[in-house]
Amino acid sequence: MSAGVGLVGFSTEPRRQQTGLKLHIITTGGTIDKIYFDAKSDYQVGEPVIGALLVRLGVGFQFTMESAMRKDSLDMDGADRSSIRGLAERCEADYILITHGTDGMVATAKSLAGIPGKRIVLTGALQPAAFSGSDAVFNIGCAIGALQRVPPGVYVAMNGRIFDANRVVKNVAANRFEDLELPNGK
Hints:
Number of strands: 10
Shape: globular
Order of helices and strands: EEEHEHEHEHEEEE
Distance between the termini: 40 Å
CATH topology: Rossmann fold
Strand order of the largest sheet: 4-1-5-6-7-8
Structural class: alpha/beta
């Protein structure tokens, strides 16, 4: 792990039955980490939840984690995406999971294109991880499974599916991710 990058409040010491997967997680905030103070209007982006979730679930692989920012993706700009890209490029791991807000996820995924040798999967949640009916754990599991099977490139893991970063769109009305309809069916 590079200097200045620390783990957030938990241990990722190797366990006895480790796989060869060495995962690096970059957190950016978004709904997955939101904490609401009232009925979905007053919120803040809290501490990243993914590390504690993975430890609690007893995953069988090593991971490191760093927080790039704690923002709602609607508030992200080109400089934020450039910063995320820089972290991914400098990361020693070839497997990178990025937790991200769903509204800006596709734009960030596209900004990560062309990083050689890396498998990068972005995921998030349509409801905060703190909510009992959240899709956060499901999406994280799907993303980690995808990382172990996809070729190098950039992907989005949402709604039980893995999408190529260039062929996905968030359908805001239906509140889900879908294949991007390209002209001429390509």
